[in-house]
Amino acid sequence: MKRVAIVGGGWAGLAAAVKASQLGHQVTVFEMAQHLGGRARSLAPTDASPRLDNGQHILIGAYRQCLNLLETVGVDPDRAFLRQALRLRYPRHEGLRLPPGPPLLSFVRGILSYRAWPLTARLSLLSTATVWLLRRFECAPQLSVAELSAGLPAIVRRELIAPLCVAALNTPAEQASAAVFLRVLRDALFSGRGSADLLLPKRPLSALLAEPAAAWLNARGVAIRLNTRVQGLAPCPDGWRVDDQSFDQVILACPSTQAATLCAELAPKWATLAGALRFEPIITVYLHSPGTGLPAAMVALQESAEAPAQFAFDLGQLGHAPGLFAFVISGAAAWVAHGLAASGESVLRQAVAEFEWQSPPQIMRVLAEKRATFACTPGLQRPPAHIAPGLWAAGDYVDGPYPATLEGAVRSGFCAAQKL
Predict the structure, then answer these.
(1) What is the distance between the alpha carbons of residues 225 and 168, in angstroms, rounded to a whole number?
(2) pTM for the complete prediction?
(3) CB neighbours of 382 closer than 8 A, spacing ≥ 6?
(4) Cα 221 from chain centroid?
(5) What is the separation of C-alpha 28 from the centre of its chain, rounded to a whole number of angstroms?
(6) Backbone conformation region of residue 143, classed left if phi is above 0, alpha if psi is from -120 to 50, else beta
(7) Which positions ≥6 away from 91 have C-beta within 8 Å?
(8) Cβ-count burial 260-292 (b if 16+ within 10 Å, e if not)
(9) What secondary structure does DSSP assign to 87-122, as a single string?
């Protein structure tokens, strides 16, 4: 048994704490906020409004480690998510929708039967996807998603590649890594039945993981210290000192900026890599309109200079308060610069133009997660999990196959705990 400090209580830190506890270690979690969950959490509840999340998060069926973590802490994925085959519904028409069945076969059947695209466009996509398959979904690391898909018809790039790219990588196709995008596609199509399914949370994010995980960890004697920001990290004869406490090993599951600061003198090369990452923000605009419903729980939108949101969620269809909607602006750096008020008004105009409302929609709240994900750009060099002997990093930014997703965070947490 080792004394293990885990700095950070987001999804990576919780995954590391659960795995380390299962392996028999004595675990202490330090979280600088007053709540667990990191960048995928619920806001503090108020009497005046329903419980809101700091953003919208979805899984796909291929994200097995996330589902494994949820089941471990007592969450039933069948109850916690609305699960459906991949579907891109637009406000006025049905987009591409994959039928049930083995993912690769479903993809081919879905493309061939989607008559909103010309036959030439459908055949072009299948031909291009076959080339990706023959190349094992690998490409040059410096290639962008826009360059990867340049030969596809414009309608395919606009209605499939662009929304999938921004949903998976939170980075516009012109700036996004084609290698990482292809990895996500590969796992969605080749990880078994249901791997391409969309899983939309039916619970507030904190109720999805943070709260069940806290209860699970507390029941097993794991110490969770909230409102505790670690100020110092130093090696000592028997391991590491975290502020004034000694531990055998440490997992840094805090944001990359904080990890870089803590390791600046201990591991300068690692800290330089972690500190060099750029970030993409996400803005969520919550609207309220009693009596209104969208044509699907998740609706894809056509982004433009005046219409910033790429997706809209009907939270009433997901078990939340009826008449509550979340409009999401991914890769939102330009809109953060415009200001949250201006972003909210632009989304409101976009919503009014795209949907029919039973009552005029009202802005309930506009939120910005300014460091929502790292910018997943071509050739990006990410810091490794190993920092120094007995010192590990966990987080969606750590070097790995996935972009900044919940699955990437959970995998890195599991991996760090298994290396103790």
Answers:
(1) 32
(2) 0.95
(3) 273, 277, 374, 397, 398, 399, 400
(4) 29
(5) 25
(6) beta
(7) 294, 295, 299, 301, 354, 355
(8) bbbbeeebeebbebbbebebbbbbbbbbbbeeb
(9) EEE-SSSEEEEPPSSSHHHHHHHHHHH-TTS-HHHH
Instruction: Tell which residue, 392, 381, 404, has the closest CA to residue 17.
Output: 392
For the chain, the straight-line distance linking the first and the last C-alpha, in angstroms and rounded, comes to 10
Total count of residues recorded for the chain? 420
Assess contact for 324 and 387: CB atoms under 8 A.
no
- Residue 316 and residue 270: Cα distance in Å, rounded? 45
Please name which of 390, 402, 409, 406 lies closest in space to residue 256, comparing C-alpha atoms: 409
Asked whether the beta carbons of 311 and 167 are under 8 A apart, the reply is yes
Residue 3, class by beta-carbon neighbours within 10 Å (0-12 exposed, 13-18 middle, 19+ buried)?
middle
Amino acid in position 163: P
Closest CA to 130 of 178, 179, 80, 185: 185
- pLDDT tens string, the chain, 420 residues long: the values are 999 999 999 999 999 999 999 999 999 999 999 999 999 999 987 666 788 999 999 999 999 999 999 999 999 999 999 999 999 999 999 999 999 888 889 999 999 999 999 999 999 999 999 999 999 999 999 999 999 999 999 999 999 999 999 999 999 999 999 999 999 999 988 888 899 999 999 999 999 999 999 999 999 999 999 999 999 999 999 999 999 999 999 999 999 999 999 999 999 999 999 999 999 999 999 999 999 999 999 999 998 999 999 999 999 999 998 999 999 999 999 999 999 999 999 999 999 999 999 999 999 999 999 999 999 999 999 999 999 999 999 999 999 999 999 999 999 999 999 999
What would the two tokens of residue 382 be?
Answer: 């990410």
On whether the CB atoms of residues 199 and 60 are closer than 8 A, the answer is yes
Are 56 and 41 spatial neighbours (Cβ–Cβ below 8 Å)? no
